[in-house]
Each structure stands twice: as structure tokens, then as C-alpha cells.
Amino acid sequence: MAVTLADVATRAGVSAATVSRVLSGNYPVAGATRTRVMRAVEELQYVVNGPASALAAATSDLVGVLVNDIADPFFGIIASAVQSEMGAVGQGGGGQKLAVVCNTGGSTESELSYLTHLQRQRAAAVVLTGSGVEDEKHGAALATRLRRLAAGGTRIVLCGRPPLAPEQQDTHQGPEREQPRPPQENGRDGEGRADSGDGIVTLAFDNRGGSRRLTEHLLSLGHRSIGYVTGPSDRTTTRDRLEGHRLAIRARAPELLADAEQFTVHGGAYDRSSGYDGALELLRRVPGLTAVLAANDTVALGVCAALRDQGLRIPEDVSVAGFDDLPFSADASPTLTTVRIPLHDAGARAGRLALGRETPPPGGVATVRTELMARGSTAPPPGPRG
Amino acid sequence: MAVTLADVATRAGVSAATVSRVLSGNYPVAGATRTRVMRAVEELQYVVNGPASALAAATSDLVGVLVNDIADPFFGIIASAVQSEMGAVGQGGGGQKLAVVCNTGGSTESELSYLTHLQRQRAAAVVLTGSGVEDEKHGAALATRLRRLAAGGTRIVLCGRPPLAPEQQDTHQGPEREQPRPPQENGRDGEGRADSGDGIVTLAFDNRGGSRRLTEHLLSLGHRSIGYVTGPSDRTTTRDRLEGHRLAIRARAPELLADAEQFTVHGGAYDRSSGYDGALELLRRVPGLTAVLAANDTVALGVCAALRDQGLRIPEDVSVAGFDDLPFSADASPTLTTVRIPLHDAGARAGRLALGRETPPPGGVATVRTELMARGSTAPPPGPRG
DNA sequence: CTGTTAGCGCTTTCAC
DNA sequence: GTGAAAGCGCTAACAG
């Protein structure tokens, strides 16, 4: 770990400044000099010292991507899309960014901790993906930290979670504690500024709308006993999807509202086993169950497994639907009815936003549309008494 | 991006050196002073400048994890395990490492490029996961780069790929061009040194052995028309798995060897669609096909889908098996016969090795055992004429 | 077009 | 136990 800019300079018979200019390429240098320098670099196998250069230039090429679970394709797809926008992987010189993904495991401390690291590294941008945790204290801490990062010049993009709660008024000015969430459909709350005013841009997923359409689909097939296996209860995504579900019931079959709580099982995680356990629990609670909605596709797979293990056929006996439309859903048997989120597109857009290569939506908030994918796992409920 | 160590020092009424000592915690500081400093840090919301600190200390807390496809759970599981070993996520001070995953997309340029970035950042360690690319030129370039990194103090761990080819003798000393690969089962080639001599440690997966056992399983069920859908042909994993398959045939049913090439379809990627297309192609080529082996579980899912679309039942008409035992395999219907690789354990071990928290295996190379998981997707072939 | 001169913000001897 | 000072390797004005 020895060879420095100075060594290269000596070898090439030029000054360190010249070498620096050749390497960064953003400054006129004579052709001959350039070749000489390049040769010296080659011969010495010189590699720029990142920290030194970052310190001097006060910039960094790091872009952090925070995900809740890197082993879940939902995040993998988004992360991969973000990374795909970071630019052609040149051999070194250019302003290419390095997107690194950080796995928080859904832990709030871990999330904060990664943000600290990223802040230390003076990251160029940070993309936070997926569900946020609904915790008053964490939410405030997170918002503060993100605003501070943004103020320091780091671009912040929220992808797949709702926008930050409006800034806390430190000058306590009243007991106004209503409406903790900013309006969703109205894209003008930033009063026309290019972002929400603090440089943080949000790409929210229309979880509520998608979920609502999904439940409507089931309702119109004739289902009246619809179980729901939620995700972890403190997640924004969980809440939004459940809300969409309830909205559909309220609008189309209000008589079912009374049983809603009874028909809802709160899963502990977005994984297969909470689907499995949840389905079993629903079967126990709801005698005439004809359909099960799952928090996402992975959970839905667990639901299917449990149902099958109980000798139930899908969709003849029970319909099942997921959410997200991950690649495996189209291949499952039967093919899984779900709600498609254009994860790749959203991730790519988040990447562009992070690099400042795309102008932020008005108000700093855009909602990504979701689409119902009606497939083989949903059908009309079985006739009375099978 | 303003507040610096000096600001904190002023505020706390001490010198910058003292603040630094308090923050790094590895030096005796009076209790009172420490509290005073901490308070100043708190009040000023001070965050260490990573580049500056890395420059001065000539160390970094970055650990890079290179993966071929971040959207593939195979890599997600390994990466997540590596990350889980990086230590309790403290609030900042300690020597905690930041594991960042870099998605190469299987591209060799991208791989090299990420290594350059990591080298620039003076990464503490680099973990390369999964299949390497079998390309003479790239192999050499990669080996050189990794050795250089290792020489510079960066720990290198190969997880899920074969060890590096032995060092190129620059002093051309003979036409010795045999055995481009080091012995696998013999763990003593490093002559008892704690690693292969260059500080690079390898955790190879026993793909060949697992594949061999899988084919033996099919053979002993009575299958004689076994199709094989491979992964991308330039990958070490692809080659090893195919070799294991051929080995089993050679040992147990040499009469099938003649048709081996005919029964092998080379898939373009480790994805669902090459499984789908591969299965169709096999059906075309092999009239009495009774079993299909896939490069991995994801490919196997594609194979299943194709088979089903052709009206074939699994396993009654055709048996199918995958490789890796990803979580979804146990949930597929029918449950998928496959070969289990302890991905999480391997990743965790790679993480420990990367941090120097575990002593490297003798010779620097360890082979991770794989295990046959015989499940519902394989059964004896149908009787003659169905 | 190229060299000189200052730092960037932190860590770390070396004194006190 | 704490301070002063000397860089770490690079970039970015300024001069020439």
C-alpha cells in the first residue's frame, strides 16, 4: 500500500498536480504528458487513495441503498435496479458512483447505524427502500437524521415507503397532533418546489390502492369469508395494504366489517412461515373460509402450503392472493393472483433521482401505480356445502 | 457539512487530540473530560469525517461483498450472513465494519471495476461469492488484482467458487500447462501454512459431489433418460455440477455416456426462463425423457413450468431436481428434490474469515459439504408406455 | 498547459 | 491525562 501520486509524478517527470489532472480527466493536459503519466501509472500499478481524494475534494462516490432484507427478491430487484443506473462501469476515472447495499434486517438501530456510517463517508446519496417502521420515536429520529444528511448535500430518496412526516416544530406552537401523514394523492403540498423543500424525494408505492382492487376482485368473485394474513404490524406497508383491504370491504360489503378483526391474523414477518401459521390460524377461526389474502407473495406461498397440507385445493376450495408480483409468483402452481409493483422501474427511477439525473416530482412525492394481476389462484368460492 | 473535530474541541474546551481519543475510545481519558466531550459532540451533532479519518489512520471499515445477482436469493442469503457477522451495530465508535454488497451482474468488467473501487477505498476485506467466470484472460487479471489487494492488507475470501489458479510464474520457466486447477480434496497444498500463502482464503462448495449424488439418486430410482439443463457455460459452478453429473453416469451407467451430450441443454443463465426453454428443448430432443436435472432451483422451477404447460405431471411423468435448496424449494408443489448448500453458514464463516475472527483452514482452502434433499419432485420413472 | 502552494479533517507520536 | 505539531495523499486555486 505504498505507491502514491507523488511517486507517479516523479516517475513521469511531472508534478503531482498534473498527474491528478490526468487522472480526473476534467482538465486540459497535453497529449504527450498524458501518455507519459498513464504509462507511469500503469508501471507502478497506481491506484488512487479514495479517502485522501475524498477528503481533498470533499466529495464521495458512495451511494447507499438500505434494504430491510437482502435475501428477499423484493429488495434484490429494487437494489439491482438502483445499481443499474449508477452508470457504465468505467475503468476508474469518471464520476461513476458506487452503489452499495446495506441490509438493515428491518431493525431500526441498524438503519440508523448504517446512516451514520454513510454520513461519515459523506455519501453522495442514500436510497431507503421498502417499508418504514411505524414508531413515533424512531420515525422522529430517522427524519431528523435524514434531514441533516440532506442538508449536508446528500441526496435522499425514499423508495417504497411513505414520505417523511412534516418537520417537527421545535418552537412548540400548539397541541396540533392530527394528521400525522401528509396527503397522498395531492402532489402540490410542496407549493411547486422541486421537492418537499428539504431535498428528500419520495417514490411511494400505491399499496393501499392495489390492495383495495385486490379485495374488490375477490368480492366480485363472490367471496364473503376472506381471511387476511398481515405483515409485521409496525410497518407502513402492512398498514397501507390492510387499509386498502378494509376500504374495499367498507365500500362494497360493509356487512363484513364487523368480522374484519376476527378474519385478520397478524403475521410476524414477511416470510413463508408467517403465511403458513397464519393460514392455519384462520382455518381455526373461520369455519367457512373461502379466500386468504396475504401480506405479500412470499407469505402467500406459505399460506398455500398450509392449505394444501390441510387437504384443501387452490383455488377450488380456497382462493389465495399475494402482493408484489415477484418473479416466482407467475410460476407457482397454481399461478398466483397478486398485485404487481413495477419494482425494477421504481428502483431505476430512485437511482436516477439519487444521482440527480432526473428532476424530482412536484412536491417531492410521486406515487408508483400498482396493478392487479388476476391469475390462477383465485376463483369463485365453492358452492354451498362444497 | 461543517462541524469538525476542532469545533467540538473548542466547545468542550479541550484539544482536538483529546476529542479524537475520546471518540476512538482506545486511550485513557479522564472521566470528566470524556463526559464534557460527549456532550459537545451531542450538542453539535458531530459526525466523524470518514475520509479524513481513514486517511489519517490508513485504515477503513469497509468490507465489500461481490455477488453475481443480488436479486437471486442464493446471493442474498450469503450476503446477509456475511453482514450478520460484521458485529453488533454500535452507535459509531467501535471497530465495527460496514459490509456493502456490490452487484456485478456476472460481468467480469463490473467485477474488476468494483474491486478497483474497493481498492481505492482501502477496503478492509473483500468477499467474492458464487461462480467465477472461466475465462483465461479474466482469470489472470482477477488473480493479479486479488493478490495485489491481499498484499496491500485487504483480506480476500472466496465463497462458493474454486480457489485461484496458482500464481503465474513471471519468470517463464517451462511449458508446464497441465492441471490448471489446484487439487480439491487435498487440503495440504499450502504446506501447512495458514492460507495459500498469499492471504487469500477459499470456501469452495462441493458442487461436484452434490451433483454426483443427485444423479445417483435418479439413477437408482431407475431413470435412464435424464436430461440436464446447465447454467451459463463459462461459470465454474456450471462446470462442476455438470462434471458431478457425468461422473455419476460414468460410474453407475456408462452405457448412457454416449447420449450425454445429446441430453444436455446449455442454459444461458441461472434463471427461470432458461429452465423453461431448456425443458422444451429436451422434450424435443429426447422422446422418452423421464427426468430433468436443472442447474439450480430457479432453473428447476422454469423446467417444472414448461413440463406442466406440456401437460406432463411431476413426478409421475417426469422427475425434476434442482440445486441449492433455496427456501422456496421446500414450498414448491411438489416439493423440490435438490442439493442443499448451507449458504447461511458458509456466508457467516466467510464473514468471520474476512474479519480475521476465524483462523483460515489449512492450505487456505475448505470445501463446504452439500447434502442431497430427496423430496416430492422425484420418483421412479413411469412404467413402459405409461 | 504545468508547477507551487495551501490546505481538507483527522490520528498520532512526542513532550509536558 | 492532555496539548502541540507533523503529516496521511490528494485536489484546487493561483501563478507562471
UniProtKB/TrEMBL annotation, chains A, B:
InterPro entries: HTH_LacI, LacI/GalR-like_sensor, Lambda_DNA-bd_dom_sf, Peripla_BP_I. Pfam families: LacI, Peripla_BP_3. Keywords: DNA-binding, Transcription, Transcription regulation. Residues 159-199 are annotated as: Disordered. GO terms for molecular function: DNA-binding transcription factor activity; transcription cis-regulatory region binding. Residues 3-57 form the HTH lacI-type domain. The keyword DNA-binding applies. Residues 169-196 have a biased composition (Basic and acidic residues). The keyword Transcription regulation applies. This is LacI family transcriptional regulator. It comes from Streptomyces bathyalis.
